[in-house]
Amino acid sequence: MSRLQGKTAVVTGGGTGIGLGAAKRFVEEGAFVYLFGRRQEALDAAVAQLGSSARAVRGSVTDPADLDRLYDAVKAERGGLDILFANAGTGSFAALGEITPEHYDQTFDVNVKGVVFTVQKALPLMGKGASIILTGSTTGVMGTPQFSIYSATKAAVRNLARSWAMDLRGTGIRVNVLSPGPTRTELALEVVGEEAMESLGGTTPIGRVGDPAETGAVAAFLASSDSSFMTGGEVFVDGGFAQV
Ligand SMILES: NC(=O)c1ccc[n+]([C@@H]2O[C@H](COP(=O)([O-])OP(=O)(O)OC[C@H]3O[C@@H](n4cnc5c(N)ncnc54)[C@H](OP(=O)(O)O)[C@@H]3O)[C@@H](O)[C@H]2O)c1
Questions:
Q1: Secretion signal: which residues (predicted)?
Q2: How many domains does the chain have?
């Protein structure tokens, strides 16, 4: 398929996991992709996999100057932006009673403030037909022990898309949330661990964990005009985890 032929995409957290899975699919479908993240080695390895249709910009979504550098590069090299996958995220466990201000700030800074300014700073480059995709999570609609702060950030992301769909009325820019369930990535393995991850996957109706290629396929759908009548919505790619 070449639904994204000639399009320009930015994927935050594009060096690994769900972001890289989407970036691969975007490139396969014809897009040029900017990968944004903090670790140069991860970005370099991803660009080596993706080839000449990918370029890395190193930075943090929590630093406005880094986001300005990213979008300055996109503007200078490509002129505009068609697809923004605001996907970078972080999470760790802290039960009620053990939540520290640092845990709260760090999680909300990356997952909410980072998403807000990743999107707002991209807007001047985007126009009719552009698509913004935010990474939510099944945790945004579920209770998860020791994971309240992360889960609250993802519930916040869900509402950003609802409200921004209204703010974007008349612009031709769509915004939707892609909410993964348990998916095999660095973050998931680090936070949950291999064994718990497998057993979590076993509890989904499909009976396994997801693969970043599967979220990538849905990201490409949301990025393309195949989803032209969708905005303000949420698509779960969760093996049915939060659906039953
Ligand atoms: N895997 C799952 O089961 C699952 C389920 C639901 C939702 N999600 C969500 O999916 C998204 C991607 O996570 P993942 O599972 O694919 O894990 P991952 O492979 O660890 O991806 C997270 C990415 O975000 C980047 N990142 C983190 N903090 C950043 C910052 N301040 N600025 C720029 N980039 C930053 C990381 O790169 P650097 O460290 O190099 O910056 C990394 O590439 C997250 O939003 C996560 O909450 C994951």
A1: none
A2: 1
Active site (annotated) includes residue 154: yes
Active-site residue identified among 7, 24, 34, 150: 150
Percent composition of the chain: helix, strand, coil (DSSP 3-state, to 5) = 50, 15, 35
Q: Is 2 within the bounds of a domain?
A: no
Banded model confidence at residue 187, pLDDT cuts 50, 70, 90: confident
* Structural domain contains residue 97: yes
Q: Is residue 241 very low, low, confident or very high in pLDDT (cuts 50, 70, 90)? A: very high
pTM for this prediction: 0.99
- Domain interval for residue 146: 8-237
- At 37-52, the pLDDT tens digits run 999 999 999 999 999 9
H or E element: which one contains 55? strand 54-58
Tell me, what amino acid is at 104?
A: Y
- 88 CA to centre of ligand 1 in angstroms: 4
Give the Å distance between the CA of 6 and the centre of ligand 1: 26
CB 15 less than 6 A from any atom of ligand 1: yes
